[in-house]
Structure formats: structure tokens, C-alpha cells
């Protein structure tokens, strides 16, 4: 029995900032799971910032930028960081390894971590 591909469109790859890369053969398409974690309208970085802001009780969104340190700038403690990682896993339907989670210090690190997990979940 042969299976048909989900889409006949040319596969696209999203960069960490959400821009499309049509040269790639990898697909970050969550339609098969009924979720759309990253769309061209909402870049990955913005989605991660929204999750971080929500986890920190609506911290001033102006302070939550790519270079913001979770502990120094946003005053997140160890429990807050765990909650952020779990929220990112839920929001993007991914698994983040403990090693990768330990390396998250800034919002940019969180974006990179999610991007890495999204790319590796498709293998």
C-alpha cells in the first residue's frame, strides 16, 4: 500500500526568526498534528517571547527581548526557568532535553533551543 505525501508543495524551512527558506528540503509543518506553532505571520522569536512573558506573569514586554537574560534582566528563578521550558514544550509540541534546558540563559537561547528541537523532531 502506497501512501501519498501530505503536501505536494515545495518544502519550506523556517529560520529562528521565522523567515522562510525555500532552498531547504526540510519541512516544519505542524498541520499533521493540528497545531501551527510557527507561521509566517508570527515568527518563532515572537512566539517564544510571548510564552516567556506569560510565564513570568506578564513581565513588561519591552524588557523581554532576544538579549534579555532570564535571571538577571527578567528576575526568573530556577523554578521560573523550568516553567518556561515546560511551557515552550507545550506551545510548540516538542521535547527539550535537560542538557539543552540547562543552557538557556537568554530569550535568544530559548529561541535557538526551540528551533533546534523543531528541526530535530522531524528526523
Polypeptide structure, described:
This protein is mainly alpha-helical and 123 residues long. It is built from four helices and two strands; from the N terminus they run E-E-H-H-H-H. Strands 1-2 form a two-stranded antiparallel sheet. The radius of gyration is 15 Å and the shape is globular. The relative contact order is 0.16.
Low-pLDDT ranges: 7-12, 19-37
In order across it, which strands form the biggest sheet? 1-2
Beta fraction: under 5%
Fraction in helix: 25-40%
Shape: globular
Number of strands: 2
Count of runs of 4 or more consecutive helical residues: 4
Distance between the termini: 23 Å
Report the mean per-residue pLDDT as an integer.
75
Structural class: mainly alpha
Order of helices and strands: EEHHHH
Radius of gyration: 15 Å
* Biggest sheet record: 2 strands, antiparallel
Quick recap of the structure?
This protein is mainly α and 123 residues long. The protein has helices at 44-55, 78-92, 98-102, 107-120, and strands spanning 13-14, 20-21. Residues 7-12 and 19-37 have low confidence and may be disordered.
Q: Descriptors for this entry?
A:
two-stranded antiparallel sheet, 123 residues, 3% strand, mainly alpha, single chain
Secondary structure: elements and pairs:
Layout: E1 13-14, E2 20-21, H1 44-55, H2 78-92, H3 98-102, H4 107-120
Antiparallel strand pairs: 1-2
Amino acid at each position: 500500500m502506497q501512501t501519498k505525501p501530505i503536501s505536494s508543495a515545495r518544502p519550506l524551512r523556517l529560520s529562528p526568526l521565522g523567515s522562510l527558506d525555500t532552498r531547504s528540503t526540510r519541512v516544519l509543518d505542524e498541520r499533521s498534528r493540528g497545531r501551527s506553532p510557527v507561521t509566517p505571520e508570527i515568527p518563532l522569536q515572537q512566539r517564544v517571547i510571548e510564552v516567556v512573558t506569560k510565564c513570568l506573569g506578564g513581565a513588561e514586554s519591552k524588557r523581554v527581548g532576544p538579549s534579555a537574560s532570564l535571571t538577571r534582566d527578567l528576575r526568573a528563578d530556577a523554578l521560573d526557568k523550568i516553567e518556561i521550558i515546560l511551557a515552550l514544550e507545550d506551545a510548540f509540541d516538542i521535547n527539550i532535553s535537560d542538557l539543552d534546558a540547562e543552557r538557556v540563559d537568554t530569550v535568544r537561547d530559548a529561541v535557538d533551543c526551540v528551533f533546534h528541537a523543531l528541526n530535530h523532531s522531524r528526523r
